[in-house]
Amino acid sequence: MIRGAENGWIDADRRIESPNYDCRPDDTEISLLVIHNISLPPNEFEGNYVDHFFTNRLNPSRHPYFEEIAHLKVSTHFYIDRRGIITQYVSVNLRAWHAGESLFENRPRCNDFSIGIELQGADHITYTEAQYSRLVSLTQQLQSIFPLITADRIVGHSDISPGRKTDPGSSFDWKRYLTLVEGGDG
Q1: 36 and 167 in contact (C-beta within 8 Å)?
Q2: Which of 17, 44, 105, 118 is catalytic?
Q3: Which of 39, 42, 46, 154 is the Cys-Cys partner for 33 at CB 3.0 to 4.6 Å?
Q4: If residue 37 lies in a helix (H) or strand (E), which one and from where to where?
C-alpha cells in the first residue's frame, strides 16, 4: 500500500476514478515506471477528452479519430497536462490498463508490475517545463514508496512495446529527466 495516502491514492491535483482497472496478481511488487504521451485529438491540447477517454465517456461524434478509439477500455495511473496539473485515475495498488501487449526484461504483461504516467503531448512536440517539474516530483515520490523503481527501470512505452508504440517520442528529453530525478541540475 502507498504510504501517506489512502488505498493507493496520492495527493494529486485531481482525482477522477477510471473503471478500467483490475487487481494486480498476488504478491506482485511494483518495479517499473512507464512514461507515455497522449493528446486527444492527436496533437491537440484543448478540452477534457483524455478524462472522457479514461472513463469510457468519449463521444465518437466529436472527432473522426474518436470513432476509432471510443470503444477501447484503457487507463493510466497518472496524467500530467501541459500546465503540470496531475490527475490520478487508478490507485497505484491496482493494475491500470496502460501498457497493453508489452515486455520488459523478458517479463510479459508490464501492467502487472508497473505504474503508468501519461504526459499530455505528442512524439514530436516539446514537453513543457511544468510537465518536467511535476514528472520529476511524482517520480521521486513513487521511488520513495516503491524502491524497486530505479533509474534503469523507468522506460518509455516504446521500450516495452517496440514496433507498436512510439511514445513518449523523440521530443522527450530522457537525459534531462533522469538527471533531475537523480537530483542533478539537468
Answers
A1: yes
A2: 118
A3: 154
A4: strand 32-38
Convert the pLDDT of each residue in 14-56 to its tens digit: 999 999 999 999 999 999 999 999 999 999 999 889 999 999 9
Predicted structure pTM score: 0.95
**Residue bearing cell 465518437:** 60
Query: Please, which residues have CB within 8 angstroms of residue 177's CB and are 6 or more apart in sequence?
Result: 132, 135, 136, 186
Q: Is 168 left (phi over 0), alpha (psi -120 to 50) or beta?
A: alpha
For residue range 45-80, what is the model confidence (pLDDT) as tens digits? 998 899 999 999 999 999 999 999 999 999 999 999
How many residues make up the chain in this entry?
186
**101 annotated active-site:** no
Q: CA–CA separation, 114 vs 102, rounded Å?
A: 11
**Closest C-alpha to 93, from 29, 48, 45, 50:** 29
